[in-house]
Amino acid sequence: MKLFRRAILTVLIAFTFWAIGLTAFSDHALKAPIDAPETKTDVIIVLTGGNNRIEEGFELFKQGAAPLLFITGVHKNVSLHELMKNWKNPDKLELALDKITLGYKARSTFQNAEEVKEWIEGKNIKSARLVTGNYHMPRAALELRTAIPEITFYLHPVEQPDLKKNEELLRNLLISEYHKFIYRSLITRLNSLGA
């Protein structure tokens, strides 16, 4: 009986720590402000995968937040002109299309970081504004900062209206991101210890 009680107590303690961690992670992800919004960077980096991310990247680029725009994780059949069709303010961007690059290799956040690292090589880039969904930002920032530690990343989390209307989907995404963030944090830590 004592063994059973200990097992139940252990499960309850583990669940409590998990729930506290999830709450803190979710609160941080959903309420994190934009880093230094007036600061200009060398490039704007957009991770695809959710509503408003690319549009926000285009808007920042149009406003002159950076002279270059790199969009990583683009589907192989999607062109820049197709992406711009879905944006409501395409004027002015037509004059700077040579400053916008699409990355087609990445299919995961880890691969996004590798794709960005590869694209940046040989370029004089010291700072970047990272644009992705707010729920996705903690892991995206971890991956990018681990892959390219020499660059200063300014985080630009984006709210997605479609998720605000679907609480169950948002909750599931946050739980999934929480687990992935813990896993990638452990892997990153172990790799740094082994280095």
Overall CATH architecture of the domain at 35-161: 3-Layer(aba) Sandwich
Cross-sheet strand order for the largest sheet: 3-2-1-4-5
What helical percentage do the residues reach? 40-55%
What name does CATH use for the topology of the domain at 35-161? Answer: Rossmann fold
Order of helices and strands: HEHEHEHEHEHH
- Mind telling me the CATH superfamily name of the domain at 35-161? HUPs
Class inferred from helices and paired strands: alpha/beta
Percent of residues in beta strands: 5-15%
**CA distance, first residue to last residue:** 46 Å
**CATH class type of the domain at 35-161:** Alpha Beta
Number of strands: 5
Low-confidence stretches: none
Radius of gyration: 19 Å
Q: What characteristic shape results from the CA principal axes?
A: elongated
Provide mean pLDDT, rounded.
91
| Count of runs of 4 or more consecutive helical residues | 7
Largest sheet: 5 strands, parallel
Describe this entry's structure for a reader:
With 195 residues, the protein is an alpha/beta fold. It has a domain at 35-161: HUPs (Rossmann fold, 3-Layer(aba) Sandwich), CATH 3.40.50.620. It contains 7 helices and 5 strands; from the N terminus they run αβαβαβαβαβαα. A 5-stranded parallel beta sheet has the order 3-2-1-4-5, with helices on both faces. Helix 2 links the parallel strand 1 (43-47) and strand 2. Helix 4 (109-120) crosses helix 5 and helix 5 (137-147) runs parallel beside helix 7 (167-194). It is elongated. 30% of the residues are buried.
